[in-house]
Design a protein that fits this description.
The structure is a homodecamer.
Chain A lengths: L14 E3 L7 E13 L6 E11 L3 E3 L1 H9 L8 H16 L3 E11 L2 E8 L1
Antiparallel strand pairs in A: 1-4, 2-3, 3-5, 5-6
Chain lengths: ~120, ~120, ~120, ~120, ~120, ~120, ~120, ~120, ~120, ~120
Amino acid sequence: MKYGEKNISKATLEKWDNPHPERDYTIEISFSEFTCLCPRSGYPDFATIKVNYVPDKYIVELKSLKLYLNKFRNQHISHESAANQIFNDLKKSLKPRHLEVIGDFNPRGNVKTVIRVSL
Amino acid sequence: MKYGEKNISKATLEKWDNPHPERDYTIEISFSEFTCLCPRSGYPDFATIKVNYVPDKYIVELKSLKLYLNKFRNQHISHESAANQIFNDLKKSLKPRHLEVIGDFNPRGNVKTVIRVSL
Amino acid sequence: MKYGEKNISKATLEKWDNPHPERDYTIEISFSEFTCLCPRSGYPDFATIKVNYVPDKYIVELKSLKLYLNKFRNQHISHESAANQIFNDLKKSLKPRHLEVIGDFNPRGNVKTVIRVSL
Amino acid sequence: MKYGEKNISKATLEKWDNPHPERDYTIEISFSEFTCLCPRSGYPDFATIKVNYVPDKYIVELKSLKLYLNKFRNQHISHESAANQIFNDLKKSLKPRHLEVIGDFNPRGNVKTVIRVSL
Amino acid sequence: MKYGEKNISKATLEKWDNPHPERDYTIEISFSEFTCLCPRSGYPDFATIKVNYVPDKYIVELKSLKLYLNKFRNQHISHESAANQIFNDLKKSLKPRHLEVIGDFNPRGNVKTVIRVSL
Amino acid sequence: MKYGEKNISKATLEKWDNPHPERDYTIEISFSEFTCLCPRSGYPDFATIKVNYVPDKYIVELKSLKLYLNKFRNQHISHESAANQIFNDLKKSLKPRHLEVIGDFNPRGNVKTVIRVSL
Amino acid sequence: MKYGEKNISKATLEKWDNPHPERDYTIEISFSEFTCLCPRSGYPDFATIKVNYVPDKYIVELKSLKLYLNKFRNQHISHESAANQIFNDLKKSLKPRHLEVIGDFNPRGNVKTVIRVSL
Amino acid sequence: MKYGEKNISKATLEKWDNPHPERDYTIEISFSEFTCLCPRSGYPDFATIKVNYVPDKYIVELKSLKLYLNKFRNQHISHESAANQIFNDLKKSLKPRHLEVIGDFNPRGNVKTVIRVSL
Amino acid sequence: MKYGEKNISKATLEKWDNPHPERDYTIEISFSEFTCLCPRSGYPDFATIKVNYVPDKYIVELKSLKLYLNKFRNQHISHESAANQIFNDLKKSLKPRHLEVIGDFNPRGNVKTVIRVSL
Amino acid sequence: MKYGEKNISKATLEKWDNPHPERDYTIEISFSEFTCLCPRSGYPDFATIKVNYVPDKYIVELKSLKLYLNKFRNQHISHESAANQIFNDLKKSLKPRHLEVIGDFNPRGNVKTVIRVSL
């Protein structure tokens, strides 16, 4: 069985020009207030989402990233799919030189899960 | 002398399709409420079991993993055998690209033990 | 859009002779009271700035580094530009054998950011 | 000058068959209640002893390890010799594929010492 | 400008025979009560000094190391020079197979500095 | 201006008989996954809700308490009103001998707030 | 509805003479490996049990207390009843001058509960 | 000598109606990003400001409190005066039933200071 | 049954004149390296001993206190008796205005015990 | 025997006018870099000195307090005398409404001591 991934159509990640494309440097972002809904039980899930990347032409604007992540609030999506979808959306938008997305979820049924996706 | 490994016959690890088999990513699971019985003294043992893997075709369903781990509650099994058996059962069921199982046991007789098994 | 980087013209990083240029060794500096202004909202930003380097001919005098960092207090500058500008100024002044600058910023809108720039 | 290493003749480390010799896995043991006597001042010394190993044919039985370590209680032995002797005794008894012994001693005269011995 | 390094003439690091020269092993020493005087302001500086080494023929006797470090109490010496001088004195006395000296200084003017010197 | 308190009509706190009404004892409950919506900005708010009480005839069933608290997920309600409403609902349902409700909210705009309501 | 309290008939708390009945003093005991079964779901519950008392004629023998607490392992009993039953059994056996029993249970359904019973 | 207290004339603390004036309850606010200037050296000072109060007719709107505290950024004011002025302004605006203001300042010259003012 | 309390005959607590008998002040002493032997199993026990007192005419000399506590190393004595005996010996020697002795013992059989004795 | 208290004659605690003598408020000062010399062994002692007071007409100027405390650096003085002397000097200079001085000393011979003196 595969979890459904609903379309979060209005999610628009705003991108800005990288002010220093002449060198590789790392941007590490942490958002500790991610929440979505479990596709099986319907109960809320909570996570810290971490995004680590080396920008190429673009950097992500932080408020648009927050609003993008807030849109998962009423989506039914599994831990694995949420982390992979955020990875895909950031990769498509920013085309970074390196990218890692980590979904560090609160325990459910006393089982804690962390998903790590990277280029 | 070798510790006995009792058959935990009813343990059924449910597997789901990996929603993103096209890439390697890591799933880290931590279950802090593992308990079994010492094969020597008969007293309870307590551990945190950690499972880290890169899925191939399947991911483990978390509730079935919890129930599988709960089945050790009244088994007499050593630290070393418990970690290795969990490793073997997950490897056989999921055939993951990478797998590590860690059994982090509470002290017994003021001696603390951690067992790490990996591919 | 690109954040503006205002000229911090009076910033003078004082340099001293490295007392031990005959060997490579590492100097790690941490300044937990960096503050500047967000170029978008105008609100204050706060960060810990870390500078790790292997000196060549010169070491940075610590009080001048503090005064240099204090000059950002009323500058409107983004996280990414602040870290890169500090990196550029130190590189130009000290010409070190190795240099890393980390800007570890307090959360804004519940989003925490760390910028890492290195040779 | 060289610290004396008294013979702890009755120390018998019991060994059991490794239940899974078909693979390399790691056993990490920590014993936080080690105490011996300083060969110089005669005062008690305290340490945490850590043993990390990859077993070959044998694993150490934990209670016999505890009793073996308790035998140092009234021995006059230096930090360096204690860590090396435990290493030698375990290596000789278990013939492990890998072995590391760490003696993490409490401060003496406000000086803290850690000894690490490994294959 | 270069900080002055006063002669600490009476510093005598006592050395003992390494009880186990037949193998490489590591000795890690930490002394959290180092203090000297700032050569610029004259104010006291405080640090933790860490010495990590692989002994060859000799190990350092701990009490003599403490007394050696206590002799900096009324010396005017910079962070960089203190760490390098301790490194040089230990290297000359012990001729170890490996040596690292770390000076982890308390903040001055809210700037914290760590100096790392190694072979 | 006063924040609106929407009617959370379907909230049904299930109560069970207190198994030991013959004595005063304390039940402390902590729920770290409370979320609601800010009545001003519309953005999500997050909190840990703590309920401490001395039961009289009834104790609250924990799953019904969780479901009751989950109902705030899409309510627009202020920090102050949320804590007071939970207090009122528990007081009305359980008529406890003592009751304290604490809403420990995550920072908003870098301002952290804790609301404490008690009999 | 009231949780059932099964008879744990074989529980025998051994008592020893208080060596210092001439004064009030406090004995605080903490047992972090308590486990029982939820009377509703049948799933395991885990807790730390704390016993604080001022002895009169008797003190409890610690191994018998451990064995007594281990007997709850396969009992179906609620958080509230477990803490109250332990309180009653200790009160009856020791007749202490003061007694407090705390059951600090792991979260269930993300809800954490602590029960405090005292004279 | 007495530190000067400059007029922060534009500071307007917005007040809202207390939604539950019928009971005493406590609001605890913490703002970790307070900064002002030392009246003696001119250097920046940093503090966490805590405001704990029991509201009467009014509660303080949090964003206006943040903006009010941000206005100290370029004021020359001592630790003692800053804490007392915030206390006075909140007391005058809110007329609370109880009020405590704590200024927890970062070390200056390795001296850390906390100022506590309460009704 | 009552634990035996062996005579520690050579224990001599040295006392010095209180330099400030004109006022009440508190001296808090903590010794984290206490060890004795369990009177039941013969195994070593470990504890931190804390002594808090208000001196009258005398203060205890710290080195003599350390040597006094070291004398328990090979005594068979229970937790309860050790704490009470230390209390009695200090009370008799110092006749302090106030005295509290705490024995904070390491877990035995996974049961942790703290004994508090005070005037 | 009584420890000697040498005259620290040049110590001048500068006092400023209390900017808010109309109310009681508390000033808590912590200085983590106090050092003096043991009157018995001659070895250095280290402590954190805490000063908590309610000012009357005067507050202590922080830099003069730091310089005053630095003057103990080469004084031979016991823990008890140091705390009491600081208390006496501050009391005489500031005549505060309330005063507490705490000397929290690093362990010596593995014995840690805290001295608390208050009005």
